[in-house]
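Q: Given only this backbone (138 positions), what sequence would you predict?
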């Protein structure tokens, strides 16, 4: 097991505060009391991935409240800007029922990188990237 997986670099309480700061800055309102069981499980999973990435020092929330993720391959950090209508329109270029392709089109538009860069990252990075995207899109 790598050092990154065994010893957090950021305290859990601080990581949770960063998650809350992200939600507030992006005006994301998640009321777990109003969620059905499936939505609550999905939210809890994505929140956990976000917090774990912060704990590991891979994810920070910048002064604008935007998540900035540092991929495990050492490439440049990825900043998730607050989505706009133009970002969501990027998914219209994908075929109907191609939900994963649509999600990655929005991710690529939101981070300002081509889909190829985002898609080339390993699954351990993809999990965090998808979690951030789902939190934005929910």
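A: Predicted residues:
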């Amino acid at each position: 097991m790598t050092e990154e997986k065994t010893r957090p670099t950021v305290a859990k309480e601080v990581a949770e505060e960063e998650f809350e700061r992200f939600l507030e800055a992006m005006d994301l309102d998640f009321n777990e009391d109003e969620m059905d069981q499936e939505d609550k499980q999905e939210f809890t999973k994505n929140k956990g991935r976000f917090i774990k990435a912060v704990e590991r020092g891979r994810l920070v929330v910048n002064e604008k409240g935007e998540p900035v993720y540092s991929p495990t391959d050492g490439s440049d950090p990825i900043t998730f800007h607050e989505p706009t209508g133009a970002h969501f329109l990027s998914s219209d270029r994908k075929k109907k029922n191609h939900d994963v392709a649509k999600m990655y089109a929005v991710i690529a538009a939101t981070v300002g990188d081509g889909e190829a860069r985002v898609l080339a990252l390993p699954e351990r990075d993809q999990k965090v990237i998808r979690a951030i995207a789902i939190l934005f899109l929910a």
